[in-house]
What we know:
- The protein has 334 residues and is an alpha/beta fold.
- It has two domains: 3-220, 3-Layer(aba) Sandwich (Rossmann fold); 236-326, 2-Layer Sandwich (Hypothetical Protein Yjia, Chain: A,domain 2).
- Helix content is 31%, strand content 26%.
- It is built from eleven helices and twelve strands.
- The chain has a seven-stranded parallel sheet, with helices on both faces. Strands 8-12-9-10-11 form a five-stranded antiparallel sheet.
- Helix 6 (134-142) crosses helix 7.
- It is globular and about 60 Å long.
- The chain starts with 6 loop residues before the first strand and ends in an 8-residue tail after the last helix.
Amino acid sequence: MSSSDKIPVTVLTGFLGAGKTTLVNHILTAHHGQRIAVIENEFGDIPIDNDLVVNTDEEIFEMSNGCCLCCTARTDLVEILHSLRQRDRVERVLIETSGMADPNPVAQTFFVDDEVAAHYALDAIVTLVDAKHVGGHLDAASRGAGGDGVGHQVVDQIAFADRIVVNKVDLVEDEDVRALETRLRGINATAEIITSSHADIDLSAVLGIGAFDLSHTQAVDPGWLDEREHQHDPDVASVSVEVPEALDRAALEKWLADLVERRGGDLYRLKGIVALDDHPQRFVLQGVHRLYELQPASSWGKEPRSTKAVFIGRGLDRDELTRGLLGCVAPSTS
């Protein structure tokens, strides 16, 4: 097949909490007139991201086996892509990687598997950057802290990008954004950099841009198609907690405020679907380090009301987090 006949694929990468799911929602609700299949990969054993994606007619595929696409789950990715080829209605594929993923092996998939390469074209690797928090990770990488740790994962995601979206610029000053752009240029001199708040961008800047250049990638790293061992920082883990009862909002907010005050530096990501005893709607919990918000979402309908939360960070205590959420159960349901 010629490149123009292949299904274009956009890979969204970026560290935990950078705004990938928000951008996915922005894409799915925009009037682009295309049938888009979304493949999501989560770093954890409870699927949350699918609940955070808006209700659409698009195909949504979850990969929440506790691994990321750069590890063993890449076989699952190939199988999904093979199955999608049988669906004539799919016009574009959007892959949202785990915040812990190395984008290199994801990109390799479109060149090392013959069937995938014959029917899909990698359009671009789009990396989202959290304008408020990325500096700390880059500092850690420049100090050589952590070996294969978080800072180096963030640097890899930036270095491999075809386009960089500096998100959450509303949380920092203009001079901080300019300084960050200069710093990003030191890591990736060729990718176009755009800025956004709440991942609200012109979709023509990230979709159908034909930015992935295989010859350039091989010139920079001649061995990039070689299989390489990928290791995550062993101190970073995902803790999932489920509570079958509704929670008391005041108790939950008090506990969250205390949690982020004490552990915010090590709490890279917090996300969840929450049932509150005084409200008929779901609430979406989103957090990064010491920032978090609890916002109403869709109605529960006939689905049992329960709370699912995922905490991703360094040195997290599963028992402590479980006790904390259970301590927020509303008195009428405990």
